[in-house]
Amino acid sequence: QEKSPCLSASLLGEDSEISPEQLYELLKYAALGRSHSAAQPSWCRIRHQTHLAGVMVVIVPEMSQLYFYKYYLQFKHLRKLFQHRFTLAPSTDFLASLYGERANMKPQKAAQGILLGLSERSDLRCDPIIQKYGLKKRGITSYILNSEELVKNDYPMKGFPKCSHYVHTGCDQQRTDRSPLFGLDCEMCLTAKGNEVAHISLVDSQGRCLLNELVKPQGSVVNYRTKFSGITREMLLPVKTQLSDIQTKLKKILPRDAVLVGHSLNNDLHCLEMIHPSVIDTSLLYARSEGRRFKLKFLAKAVLGKEIQCEDVVGHDPGEDARAALELAQFFIEQGPEKVAKLNLEKLLDDKSEKKGQRVQQELNESPHLSKPCFLECLKVTGQEPLLLGRQELDSSSPCQSNPSASNKQILQKALEGVPVSTFGIVQFSLGPETISSQLLAELRRKMGSKLTDMLTVYAGPFEAKFCLKSVEQEFGRCGPIRSVTLLTETYQPYVCIQYEVLEAAQLALETLNGAEVAGSCIKVQRPVTATTLDCDDLIKELELDVENQGVIYVAGLETSLTEEDLEEEFSQLKDLETLFLPKDPQTGKHRNFCFLRFRTVQSTEDALEVINGRSMEGSRLRSRKALAPSHLWRWIWQMNHSSGKRKKMNNKKKPQLLDCEQNLRKKVAKLDKCIKKLYRSLQHNTLCVVVFPGWISGCGSQPGLGLMAIKDDRGRSAC
What is residue 515's predicted lDDT score, i.e. its pLDDT? Predict the structure, then answer.
């Protein structure tokens, strides 16, 4: 059964921002796997990355986290499709950071690198690599051996007498620079017939092993060559796979435009008794003078920084050798002949200095004029042509095709046409620069702050004339952290205004204390009735159904002295408990009196609520309900709420104009939501989709960005 890729973004309770560079690393790993120095990010794990069908990034440059939660109800598709969200650190040049190190290169440094390169070129022209390939970077087809080179280097060829019984791979389609690369290596034993294959490995362009099998030689074995092949008599005794079986498998696996990569691959093809027309031979690619060749072990160490064919291991690993040869070819194609020549491999070999080899490799990675290629270039080398669409004016370093006059509808149509033929895409939608202004942004922040304040506030009463305010505060404090308690004197009977710090606490107070007896009085608990709270019930309902809140419950009434270890022990009997998050006060660093629990299934979530609230009926201080605020958001709510009092009200003369702008923005947001939904539904099954609202720094202050992620399943929904 095929394994489906899945995101494991343990973001419950995360209050740290993800930088654009961290997002870049995630996208690089998703698109390239472990090749090209792509590492699994620590903040988000992709399980079964090799089964990803593609990656799609959607960017809306003008948007920030504020807009998503201000128009939360309008984003009805976005909030239902994308399970994982994270706060993105605002960036003044998000696109440059996304396109990688090369796009980030400052013009001054880039110019300096060019000048340095010119001064070095005269020395490089004598290098065998430059003499063979020139200075400019080329595509895959430029490094495939031509017919003359195949004959000269003893490759199996159709029509040769000794190859009359050889099997053709059937890969007869014309090669392009997008043709896929496959690494191949065989280990041989010496038999009465000569060299015969005993072990074969084939890897794809991502380094994934497609074939790794022992093969029964046809002739009687004269020498197992265990020191080099790793093959022993005992290993081959149970093997029944014949050479013909391997030939059949290779013909099935290799696409018609496959390019085989190997080190002295002619030997492997002769032992396989197969003919393949398109080959990149790394022993010839890394050219030396006078027909000499570098060993694979040396190239892997000097170029890739990898140790292979270690002396303490008996025999070579054909999978390791096939992968090394593949990565050497990819490195050469990506970096180009000039940068490979600058490694000065001949001198490294003469000096026999491993340390110097590591230093040169480090210089290649770190020097401004030898910067690592952005992963968009790596994609092209591996045969993946990125889809890049947008309407924003970008700087000259950006590879994205832009058209300022294009509408989101036109961009969507182009994207829908490109999705079936692209495994990686960056699509930019826009609300239009005229939509956003500093005045509108300030007004939206003010309204969002007011809405949060109203949603976090409850009124309770009436109380007796001489009631105990402290007992009221204690009772309401069981629902969660209180920001303030105010006694209202405007009413005939005493009422109390309680303002909480988290949404769940205010909602829990409404649900559990309305109609309850508190401080000797049967009280009513309600939110303030304002324009911002008229849709509060709808908003609360949608927040409960939010995909990111599935399986998460809020528990209040904890002793602040308890640690996470204490709580894990207390809740240990709850079935399928996956994660526990105990927040800290942003100012004091002390633990709060509430926590969040995430469960693996919906049923275990319901069972946990029943257990905890059942204890409450029996006298326990704990109270719980389903989570409301997405897990990354509680700190943001705290910041918005605590800064709301500092905001200035808008001049009444400007309000009608801003109201029109806000209504226009609301409509554009709803249309944007539909555009993203259509694009998402057009994606292939198992495609990672990331939506980015970059945030920015404006006259109104830093605006945190927002990222949304999901892997589409075969029903068009989030896979995990």
Answer: 94
Q: In whole angstroms, what is the distance from residue 443 CA to residue 659 CA?
A: 10
Domain limit, last residue, from 510, 526, 542: 526
Token pair for residue 488? 């209202």
Q: Two tokens at 217? A: 């030689």
CATH number of the domain where residue 489 is located: 3.30.70.330
Instruction: Starting at the earlier edge strand, list the strands of the sheet with 552-556.
Output: 577-581, 594-599, 552-556, 623-626
0.85 exceeded by the pTM?
no
Q: Where are the beta strands (DSSP E) in 589-672?
A: 594-599, 623-626
User: What is the C-alpha to C-alpha distance for residues 623 and 629, in angstroms, rounded to an integer?
Assistant: 17
Indicate the pairing of strand 552-556 with strand 594-599.
antiparallel
Domain housing 496: 454-526
Helix (H) or strand (E) holding 663: helix 655-682
Give the tokens for residue 554: 């809020």
Taking a C-beta distance cutoff of 8 angstroms, is the pair 96, 107 a contact?
Answer: no
> Are residues 140 and 233 located together in one domain of the fold?
yes
| Domain count for the chain | 4
Q: Across-strand partners of 189?
A: 196
Is there a single domain that holds both residue 467 and residue 585? no
As a whole number of angstroms, the distance between CA 644 and CA 634 comes to 15
* Strands across the sheet containing 387-390: 84-88, 705-711, 687-693, 54-59, 424-428, 387-390, 401-402
pLDDT, tens digit, 9 for 90 and up, residues 319-334: 999 999 999 999 999 9
The answer to which of 432-436, 534-538, 546-550, 591-595 has the lowest mean pLDDT is 432-436
Residues 324 and 179 in one domain: yes
Amino acid at 488: L
